[in-house]
Amino acid sequence: MWSAEHAAKVASEYLSGLGRRWDHVRTVGRLADELAASGRISPEVATAAWLHDVGYAEELSTTGLHALDGASFLATEGAPPEVVGLVARHTGAAVEAEERGLGPQLGWMPEANPADLDALTLLDLVTAPDGSLTDPETRVAEILSRYPASSPVYRAVSRSRVELLASAHRARERLGLTNEWPAGAAQGVFEP
């Protein structure tokens, strides 16, 4: 049941009314589908790619930490623990959980395979908020530019910046992707 195709439908149900957020998720999901089709990432990563931001849906937001809120929803819906763990811990969520005082709650979520988590982080960091393709350094700078220094998101991304970029780099190497991917390989493939 929890295939990438099903995940895309769930994501659409909860996020399609959120404009740029949906544009971002669609591109992340489509990139993941391409990598899964070529056998570079697992089906669980592709599924989690579609669902990684589902916690932004207003009706699912309870803690303010979208990764935790999305993972909690997915756990109650019977999503596989691997997918729940990836959503819960994607793109530096553990550091943001600390910043928000939610570390213990995140600790109840399943762990994520580190290589799979790197792949999901890369997918998230090569996709801008409007669904256009970017690079991890530019994406991290863009995230920081949207939040004041007092925000837990700003503090978390500032603290985890080096590890986020290292995670994206590890994923590129492990998956055999160039530093230009996806822009060099998929330019013009996706319309936001």
Provide a short characterization of the protein structure:
With 192 residues, the protein is mostly helical. Helices cover 64% and strands 0% of the residues.
Task: Report on the architecture of this protein.
The protein contains eleven helices and no strands. With 192 residues, the protein is an all-alpha fold. It has one domain (4-186). α1 runs parallel beside α3 (43-51) and α3 packs across α8 (114-125). The two termini are 27 Å apart. Mean pLDDT is 94; it is low at 187-192.
Encode the helix/strand succession as letters: HHHHHHHHHHH
Overall number of structural domains: 1
Number of strands: 0
Count, helices? 11
| Mean of all residue-level pLDDT scores | 94
Shape: globular
- In helices, the fraction of residues equals 55-70%
- Strand residue content: under 5%
How far is the N terminus from the C terminus? 27 Å
Largest sheet: none
Based on secondary structure, the structural category is: mainly alpha
Q: What key phrases describe this protein's structure?
A:
single chain, about 190 residues, mainly alpha, about 65% helix, about 0% strand, globular
Write the layout of secondary structure elements.
Elements: H1 4-15, H2 20-37, H3 43-51, H4 66-76, H5 81-89, H6 93-99, H7 103-107, H8 114-125, H9 136-146, H10 152-175, H11 183-186
Helix pairs in contact: 1-2, 1-3, 2-3, 3-5, 3-8, 4-5, 6-10, 8-10, 9-10
